[in-house]
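Bug #77: duplicate submission created two jobs. Keeping one. Sequence:
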Amino acid sequence: MTIRKALTIAGSDTSGGAGIQADLKTFQERDVYGMTALTTIVTMDPDNGWSHGVHPIPLATVQEQLHTVLDGIGIDAVKTGMLGSVELIELVSETIRSRKLPNVVVDPVMICKGNDEALHPETGSAMRELLLPVTDIVTPNLFEAAQLSGRPPIATLDDMKEAAKLIHETGVRYVLIKGGAKLEYPTAVDLLYDGSSYELFEEDRLTTGYTHGAGCTYSAAIAAELAKGASIREAVGTAKAFITKAIQYGFPINRFVGPTLHSAYRHHA
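Kept job's structure:
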């Protein structure tokens, strides 16, 4: 058996529900060997309302991690998560471009769940100018799509379509905007745009507060399917089903937060 390999370049969620922890769990569930280049360590304070602390990894250490994986092992797909500085985006973008890395999935993480503002607003332009042109598919939620497209808040499907067009103009091959619970639409709908046509991926809406790590998990599932040879549309379809089950069976880990259940698709599909 030849197992495909995927790299996640992302932050570490100490609580285990998001970031590289979610990515590695997803890779394992989708039969892909997962590797990491850690960019940030995110901690949570249980004595202060679960407030987040963000602790960047030195750029040189990120470079050494990339050297370990890319030169020492090799990959079939790569996904990015939290890239907290312009310098880090420059490093990752140049690595993807110069090495012609395959199957690039960008989850444009701009906030920690529970926060309302972008962690580093200046990284939005760096993503648009440097990272998206070397990306196969970008997977923003409504907030991130508004940031990347320069639009006001997105509330409708027509808003999503307009934002997808603007994001696609950066040079990214595919744009997948995730509707989420805040969209004015009867189903949980995500919009895929390839520059010429739109495709909707719909599931029943779920009423739950246990969605921590959902975006990381969704993009990691897409990367895993691409690593195994699926098309973009096939990968999104499988990942949509995977994350829907993960959210449906989400659970609380304390009084502050509840993650998705990464094994739910295997047990309940």
